[in-house]
Amino acid sequence: MIIENIAGAFEAVFHFKNLLLMTLGVAAGLVTGAIPGFTITMAVVLTLPFTFGMSPVEGISTMIGVFVGGLSGGLMAGVLTGIPGTPSSVATTFDGYPMTRAGRPGLALGLGVWSSFFGGMISAVFLMLLAPSLAKIGLEFGPWDYFALVLFALTITASLAGENMVKGVIAGGVGLLITAIGEDEISGIARFTFGVEPLEQGFDFLPVLVGLFAFSQLLSDLRDKVRARQPMVVSTVAIAIEHVQAVKAIFLHWKTLIRSSLIGIFVGILPGAGGTIANILAYDQAKKASDTPEKFGTGTPEGVIAPESSNNAVEGGALITMMALGIPGDIVTAVMLGALLIHNIAPSPTFITTEPVLAYSIMVSFALSLFIMLGLQAICLRIFVTVTRVPMYRLATVILAYCAIGIFALNNIVFDLWVLLIFGILGYAMRRYGFPLAPMILGVVLGDNAEINLIRALATDDNLMIFFMRPWSLFFLMIAAFSVAFPWFQKYRGKKKWTLFFSPFLALSLSIPMFMMGGEVRPIIACGLIGIGLFVLYRRHRGGWELKPVGADEHQLRES
Amino acid sequence: MRRISADVVIALLLLILCSGLYVDTHFYETVPGAIIGAKIWPRVVTFFLGGLSVLYLIQSLKAEPAEDDVARGTVAEWFLANRNVVGCFFLYGVFLISLKWLGMLLGGMLFVFVTLTFLGENTRRNHMINAAVAVVTIGCMWAIFTFGLGVILPQGEILPR
Predict the structure, then answer these.
(1) How far apart are CA A218 and CA A205, in angstroms?
(2) pLDDT-based confidence at residue A560 (cuts at 50, 70, 90)
(3) Coil, helix or strand at residue A183
(4) pLDDT for the residue A549
């Protein structure tokens, strides 16, 4: 059965039209990702209107192509100019750019390209192995558990906003509020419409998304009059990528590659955490584990391998969560989830069993995109050099017009264009006043799911204590609580005594729902968690509850 | 006198919004036989958002005003600093209003040309390039969506059908 499904997926993905669309997607992603100021999310969002007329496999494959291309494209600008093309390439510039200045731009690009490829392939293998198993766990979820999972996804995304945690949760709340507007699905009663007829249908996902992300991003780029008129990047000369040297260097540092890829997969699995975090985290860990940490920042190969392999591995992890649980692992997968919803396919724990060909097609097209990316990198490098000579204001204006055409194509109604404008203004204001957009998008994507599951839970039993009595629900609520406290833990780590109890308490607390789950493996995991928690407490007790200052490296990374 | 920070204003606006929305939930009818009313979810969300807004307000009142707030000038200065953004939003709004008459093709070209002229340098060469960019890009996009994807874009009243 599995082989049949995989064969079906290969047939769908390797169809000529699909291959062509994926190639175009990867090329577009490579160029867009390389342009500073244009994010990968924006590229994927702008691809969405083109996917309406495509089959689900073609649409998702194209978007995966854009995403894989975008992740790899970000390194071109970072390595050649020192300005990261996307936030997920920030750490790549730490060693990529010094390597270019030292006269080895071809090697720096080669290391980046091949690390991206290997990191992506490792995560593709994990995707194929883990997603079906995780989906089986997802089948255990009842409405209480699913609602708690959504809550966890929102809190962890908001907690990534750091000290702006409250603003992050508010953004998530506004996202939920947006989905509440319109007719109630069960009773058909209009909510929050205030007599405005077009609001009765609610807001379509796409105009909201494009407005919040693309529209507001473009206008933020145009705010500075002088910078908007300048070419985006000072042009660079044509460079030959040193493939053989790069692959040799990567095999020499295979441990860095594996470690960083695993970090990327783990970060990808966490809802809301994306390539930016993985990129910096992998760089930090590579530096700590290296025999020559002093060489980091001067153009060492490990400094390019670690961040690039991890940021490409993120997507495999994010796809695992999306396909197995119906929860987007990052914003790009949230957009993909939205694209699937447009095609009337709702990812859930049953997604892999109900849509096996599509599920395996996602996995296959992810792996295939990496090969296409390798082939296109050299060509797109030339296009990138040309595109970056265009002033930002010209590109941004044309894309604004494209947004209008693309959004109109969704439902053929002008009201969607007004929604785009209103959410563009809202998104711009949120950016200006420090509200993160990621939790809001997650709120918009997951709002309906949250409502349906809460209503189902309450309709079954109005006892709210059930949320704390069911193991998975308790598990998610506990990690949601710890993720809420995480920004304070980060802030006071090394300064306040209570931070010494944070991680052991997390381990000890999570052991409770693990015990409640029963079976054979989970109680063993629970025992392991208790062991870890007690061991950490014992070590800290032996150390006299001494506070250790946070390392200088971490300070430097946080600043950057 | 201490100035009110932008965060305080936003928190207050959010509180007013949540209160208004909460009051609105009282007007939803209950469908006979329904176990859970249509008002539950909106109330959960408004309570949640309202609670957070109170927290945000307290946090903002306790915090020192940010440098941006202290250095904030007059409304005219704000407009000058955000000239490009306000201008683009305005032109986009005008473009949407004009769609009924101009349609997507003419309206889109005009929007791109006017916006490029507004944002770019005021030279004759630049105007020529802007016009070419407007005609070529919008023309291509219009053709792709109309003929390639089969989307019927607004035609407007000026162009013959």
Answers:
(1) 19
(2) very low
(3) strand
(4) 67
- Over residues A320-378, the pLDDT tens digits come to 888 877 777 777 788 878 777 777 777 777 777 788 888 888 888 888 988 898 888 77
- Put simply, whether A404 touches B (Cβ < 8 Å) is yes
The pLDDT, as a whole number, for residue B76 is 79
Average pLDDT, chain A: 83
Q: How many CB atoms lie within 10 A of CB A20?
A: 12
CB contact under 8 A, B153 and A174: no
Helix (H) or strand (E) holding A163: none
Which residues of chain B fall below pLDDT 50? 70
Three-state DSSP class for A182? strand
Query: What are the structure tokens assigned to B153, written together?
Result: 């874009």
Q: Which two tokens stand for residue B151?
A: 């989307």
Give the pLDDT band of residue A557 (cuts 50, 70, 90): very low
Q: Is B120 on the interface with A (CB under 8 A)?
A: yes
Task: Report the predicted TM-score, pTM, of the whole model to 2 decimal places.
Answer: 0.80
Element (H, E) at A190: strand A190-191
Please state the separation of Cα A140 from the chain's center in Å.
25
d(CA A344, CA A354): 13
User: Residue B91 is inside which H or E element, if any?
Assistant: helix B83-119
| Token pair for A24 | 């175009």
- Tell me the two tokens of residue B48: 């949640």
CA distances, A457 to each of A513, B31, B34, B75 (Å): 19, 19, 15, 50
Residue B21 main-chain phi, psi, to 5 deg: -70, -35
In contact, A22 and A59? CB cutoff 8 Å:
no
ipTM score here? Answer: 0.92
Could you count the other beta carbons within 10 Å of the beta carbon of residue B34? 14
d(CA B136, CA B105): 11
Q: Distance, in angstroms, between A47 CA and closest chain B CA?
A: 13
pLDDT digits (tens, 9 = 90+) for A420-436: 999 999 999 998 888 98
Asked if B15 and B55 touch (Cβ cutoff 8 Å), the reply is no
**Cβ within 8 Å, pair A194-B115:** no
**Of the partner residues A166, A180, A428, the one whose CB lies closest to the CB of residue B41:** A180
Spatial CB neighbours of B75, under 8 Å, sequence gap ≥ 6: none
CA distances from A140 to A92, A288, A450, A470 (A): 40, 39, 17, 11
DSSP-based helix, strand, coil % in chain B, nearest 5: 70, 0, 30
Q: Which alpha helices (H) appear in A82-197, and where do they start and end?
A: 90-101, 105-138, 143-159, 165-180
**Which of B4, B119, B121, B136 to mutate against chain A (most A CBs within 10 Å)?**
B119
**Does the CB of A409 have a partner CB in chain B at under 8 Å?**
yes
Task: Report residue A550 as tokens.
Answer: 């946070």
Return the ∠ at Cα A545 (arms to A540 and A551), rounded to 5°.
Answer: 80
